[in-house]
Specification:
2 domains, globular, alpha/beta, 9 helices
Length: 268
Amino acid sequence: MSSRMKNQQEKIEDIKKLRLIDDLFFEAFAENKEAIEEVLRVIIEDEQLSVLDVITQSSERNLYGRSVRLDALCILGDGRKCNVEVQRSDNDDHGRRARYNGSMITVKDSNPGERFEDVTNVIIVYISEFDFLKGGKPIYHVDKVVRETGERFHDGFEEVFVNTAVSDGSRVSRLMSCFTKPIVQDSEFPKTSAEVTRLKTTEGGLNAMCELMEKYTTEARAEGRAEERKSLIFNMLKNGMMPEAVSKTCNLPLDEVEEVQKELMQTV
C-alpha cells in the first residue's frame, strides 16, 4: 500500500470515530441545511424554523474571518442570524465567549448609519460536552430581566446553552445523545442520522471529510509556524535588537516585526 493510500485510509479510520460534538465533524455536518435545520428546530422549539443559508469556517463565503469562531452561522427565514458552536474543552469563560461571538456578528452585519431597530437579531446556540452552568439541565435559555420589575427585556440577542452531559428524557436531551455517538441511527431525527451516515460511509462524504481534515491540519501547522516566528521576534526585541536588525536577520517584513514591538511595549 502506498504512503498516500495509507494516509487516506488512516483519515477514514479517524473519521469513523468522530462525533457531532467534535467541531471538525460538526462543521461538515452543518453544511447540510436540512440537517442543521432539524437540530435547531428541536433546540429553539420552533417546528416552523427554516434555515436559508449556512456559513462555516471552511466555507469560501466566510466573511467573518478567523477572529470570530463560527462552527456554523445559520441565516434563518425570518432574518435572524443563529451561530451554533460545539465545545468540548472546559477551559474557557463560556458565557463571555458566546457574548463575544454574538457581538462580533452584530457589528459585522450592521451598517454605519443604520437605525438601531434594524440591527441584526442574533441567537447564540452553544452546545457543550459538560454542564458548565451546573443546574442539572440539558438546556438553558438565558434571558435579560429588568431587576426592578422582573419583566424580560428584549434587545434582539438570545443565548441558548445546551449540553450532552445531562439526560432527562426530554426531546432535546435525546437529540444531544446523538452528538455523543460515532454512529447515529435515530428515527426521531432522520435528517441528522442520514447526514452523519453520508459523511462516514459514502465516497462523497468521506472525500469531503478528508479534504476538511487536511485543511485543518495545514492551517494548524501554519498557525504553529506563525507563533514560533512571533516568539523569535519577541525574544530578539526583548534582548535589545532594533526592529530593522531583526527584520534583516530573520528575513521578515519590517511591519511584522513592528507589530510585535507594539505588543512588547504594551507589556512593559
